[in-house]
Every structure is written in C-alpha cells, then in structure tokens.
Amino acid sequence: MTRVPLLDLTRSDPDTDAALRAAFERVLGSGQFVMGPDVGEMECECAGYIGSMDAIGVSSGTDALILALMALGVGAGDEVVCPTYTFFATAGAVWRLGAKPVFVDVDPATFNVTPEALEAAITPRTKALMPVHLFGQSADLDGIEAVAARHGVPVVEDAAQAIGARWGARGVGTVGAFGCFSFFPTKNLGCLGDGGLVTTADPDLGRRARILRVHGMDPKYYHQEVGGNFRIDTLQAAFVRVRLAGLDAATERRRRNAAGYRERFAAAGLVRELGDDAPGGLVLPLEVDPSHTYNQFVVRVTGAQGERDRLRAFLHQEGVGCEVYYPVPLHLQACFAALGHGEGAFPVAEKAAAESLALPIFPGLTDSELDRVVDRIAAYAAARA
Ligand SMILES: *Cc1c(COP(=O)(O)O)cnc(C)c1O
Q: Is 132 in the pocket of ligand 1 (CB under 6 A)?
C-alpha cells in the first residue's frame, strides 16, 4: 500500500541540507550560542521578507504572543478578543498573563475572524484585538485596522501559520501593533526546534519587547520590570536564515498542490458549495486573497454528523495522512471552563470543528500522492452514495 504522509519533514533537498549543516558548523565554530550576529541577521532578513520595520527573534510562536501582550501592558483584569477556532496558544498566551480571552466566532467560509465580530466583543476592558490568520490566509486586515482605530485598541496579529500571506497589498504582521510568527517545524518557515518572531513598526514597542525578551533588563543587571527569557537560540536563528532563502519556492509548491487538489476534486465531482450538506462531498477552502500560503489545506466533509470522522478513519486505514484542526474550539476546552461557555455558544466554530479535515499539502508532496489522496476520497464517496 502506498502511504501518503500528512507531512514529511525528512523530504528536504540536498542543497538546503548542506546549507543547514554549514550553518551548524559556523555557529559551533563561533562559540556564541545565545544572541550574536546570526540573530540580528535573521531579524533583518525576516523583517525584510515580511515588510515590517523591525523584527525580534524569540523562543517560540507562543512566546511571541506572550511578549507582544506583555509589551502592550496586558495583565490581570484586561480582556483580549480572539477567535475560539484556532490553535490553543492564541488564548493560552492571554490567560498566562492573567487576562481574559474574549472569544468570538469565525466566518464559515474562511475560518477567520471578521472585523464585525471583533468589534461586537469590544468592552471598556478590551486591551487588544488578536486576529489569527488561520491555515495560511490573512484575515481582513483593512477592516480590522479600521475597527482598532475606531476604538483605540491595539491589534496583535497571530500570524504563526501565515508568513508571507497578504491582504491586498499589505502583508500579515505589518498592520497590527505587533505581528507574531512561529518557526515550529510544521510551520511554513520552520527551524529545527522551537523559535518565533515578533514584528512591529513602532520603535518604542520594539525597544520594550527587546528589553522584556531578556528579563526586563536594561542596562545589564538592572531591571525596571519583570520580563522573561524569550530569546531564540543562535543555532535556530541560523537555520531560519537558511530556510528563509527557500521559503518562496516552498510556498509556491504548497499553492501548486492546492490548485492540484481543486482540479482533481472538481474532475471527480466531489466539490460542494458551503451550506450543501448532502453526503459524499467536500467544501474546499475559499481563497479570498491569492497570497494564501496553505500552511494547511482544510476541507469540510459534508454529510450527516460523524461523516468527517468516518472519512478520517477510512483514510487512515488506506494509509492517507490527515488530521483535524481543531477538534475542540477553545471555548469548550476544559481549562477555560471558568469562562462559562457552553455548547452552542459559537455555532460556526463548533460546526467547523466537527466537519473540517486537513489533507497533505506540504511542499514535498508528489503528483502521484495527490492522485492517491483524491482517489481514496472518491472511493469513499462512491461507497457512501
Ligand atoms: C503554532 C501556532 C502558535 C504557537 O507557535 P509555537 O511556536 O508552537 O509556540 C500560535 N498560534 C497559532 C495560530 C499557531 O498555529
């Protein structure tokens, strides 16, 4: 049986591998393993790529969010508005600072938050809006910026899944007070461990974030406030530099794979419109902006309750990797029970959690593997008809 992995990080090209080994040798030889020139260079190169004034390398995407919120002074008693349908870290970062995540529902077609939903959740205690550019596609940055300006509330963009994505002419991570990125290996720009980045165009916020990154220390051994150790390893920064050089080509491969799915699913007669719940079909991800970076290719499986889980079990049996992002919206997570949200509170997110399925989309996926994924889904649909 031909297996198709959801993601295979060992499929790397020999030139990139050689460059990663050379980066390791260079850092090893330098004797400088924390901060140093590679971190500064990586920050410059990433700022250039993203189109932001400044970039600050940090220990993970999660720490990028925590650092951004800390720099904005978010703490106990404050509220931060964020989607309930996202990776845990979005709201986890808010909670870690003693603030309250105020959840909003998402748009059924894009899985992203809308400016309207964010605005409706603003109260006098709102300290920040935290949209997520989910699965690699930008949320409506113009609309979100307008809402933020109207209410005088800063935006922290969770761009962990969407480096390189744009809303029209504007890149993710360039509109909010801060943009937060992750170099976790499964992200489009992954290092060989944990790492992250914070972007900002505000020199004061940038300075503050750099100080908070090293225990609030300024100057050395003098602490005006308590920060953390949010530094990125020099080695990981050096790896990011190597991978950044190949990022556009890798994103192009992801986009090509997405187009390949669209053609094949259409040819197989499996494509359904959003809202069509007849069994045996898929609603494909809506591409609102042609810069979608496809960190994930997430389809909705139409049909009766449990249909997505049945298809997933079938695909696993057939050796086709797939995963559910995310099976439980954050408002229903046990750790947030104190917020008092019950089932039905955010119906769009709950429906998405029940219907969504991520298919293999990574850059190294081959055409015959694309064929195999579509062929197995078509076989399932035919058996259900
Ligand atoms: C991955 C991710 C994070 C956290 O990044 P880490 O580097 O794993 O800490 C935050 N938000 C979203 C939406 C993510 O996908």
A: yes
